[in-house]
Fold this sequence. Notes:
4-stranded antiparallel β-sheet
Amino acid sequence: ATGYYISRGESPNGPFTRIGQSSVVNGVNTFVDTTAVPGKTYYYKVRARNDKQITSMNIESVAAIRPIANVVMAGSNPHKTGNIISWNAVEGAKLYQVYRLRGGETTWTLLKNTRSLAYKDASAEVGIKYYYKVIAVSNQATSAYSNCVKIKSK
């Protein structure tokens, strides 16, 4: 298959409506349902496609997924012992993943998986600008990234 068509329903028996198709990201077929409502359960069907024809293969109910809301950053504070960021709780989140980008670089680094609503980056170097973002993770889904905060370490 060269890709996949994605259909979504609100019950395991449908009806299902095509909502998009996969795209390849880092060599992996990926689809993000940007219209899903947090807290609502959805069922998905996937149909393989190739350049010449659509196959009849259906994968029934790949997963029942309940999306979760995005993280909203609540604060940031440069401190002499490390940058401190905090965020609001997301209903259903089991943990949060904290990411950092050092000013002038292009690759985000996962710093920590935490159950806390705050993180202190003790490894931040004085005088350097850092950018932070957070995602929430539940048993079934991962939120989109939070808004990004910028801190210049003291």
